Amino acid sequence: MWHVAIPVTLILTFFYIPVFSKDEIGKLYLSFEYYNPNGILVDGDKCDFLDTCDVYFFICVKNIGSTSCDIYEGKSELYENVNELKFAKMKEIVIPLNSPIGNSVEMGIDIWDFDGLDASDLIARFDGIFQTKSLSMKWTKIPVTRTDLIYQNDVTFKGFARLECPGGSCNKVCVPRKGINTCDAEGNKICEKGLTGPACDQIDYCVENNCADYATCESFPNGYKCICGAYEAISFKSCQIVYQVLDVKRVMTLAR
Question: Which parts of the sequence belong to the EGF-like domain (predicted)?
């Protein structure tokens, strides 16, 4: 019997493994459930004459608009003679994230029957788009659509996934660097004392300064400046501690 493609639900769940290389900003862990009760290929034929399907999953994860699998491309291990694969029995797929991913990510999953070194037969194909900011350490359901326009089998497919990022976000690059910066829960850099700038690569000259208590210190690439605000009529040096008492008296005199 021929079927029309219908939406299916993919549930992604990410497993907690808090080990990262210095170049990684996070990891994505995937695991699936698969059910093909009669062991049928997409064209209606049996996977094997006597045995059931030898199943593996091919996964492509990419940023929206990318023409290649720029986040991940690979396949799972082979599961021989299975019509059903439970989540607990499948070895999770680890996807290291070495660069920021977009807020919207596209994923394609092809399910294949392995018939030898040079042959594989398609069982089913699914595509989906999900928002990375909606993912967390809890299980998240993501809608996907079966993309086989015509198929003669009934395949139930679910996935489980969970996202783990040390800086709290995989959309920003923030890797803690000893003596340079830490990361907050949103993935923003927090510069260590003595450093400043978006990348924490500039010297903060205001860490040690002789500005007066009423002055504001502003750091520049080649030094710092004391800004007196209400005392702008006074010379630059009057904002410094050595002139603090004298400058206050001068300001009071000028104000009269």
Answer: 202-240
